[in-house]
Amino acid sequence: MRYLAEHKIPRTEIGGRFDDVARVLNEVFGSSSRLLVSRQSSNCTRSIRQGSFGFHDSLKDQILYLREKVRW
After folding, report:
1. Domain locations in the chain?
2. Rounded Cα–Cα distance for residues 65 and 70 (Å)
3. In whole angstroms, how far apart are CA 30 and each of 40, 49, 50, 69?
4. Residues 28-45 as b or e (16 or more Cβ within 10 Å = b)
5. Short-list 18, 52, 50, 51, CA closest to 37
6. Which residue, of 1, 13, 19, 37, has the greatest Cβ tally within 10 A?
7. Full-model pTM
8. Own/partner long-range contacts of 66-71 (Cβ < 8 Å, ≥24 apart)
9. pLDDT digits over 8-45, tens only?
């Protein structure tokens, strides 16, 4: 959260600025950040009980899919 705050991304905007969050995590943690983002996407997916994503699936596609499911 500290790194996100340094990049002016408050907790309340994480979902809406997920691309920015993924970029910051990548800067901080390198390729290991994919695990964090993939894990979080997977947790979100389970919470809406729809499918699951693999490690190599596009992060942007995962988020777009989840956003569409939440809207319905």
Report:
1. 2-71
2. 9
3. 17, 30, 29, 29
4. eeeeebbeebbebbbebb
5. 18
6. 37
7. 0.56
8. 66/41
9. 999 888 878 888 988 998 999 898 888 877 777 666 65
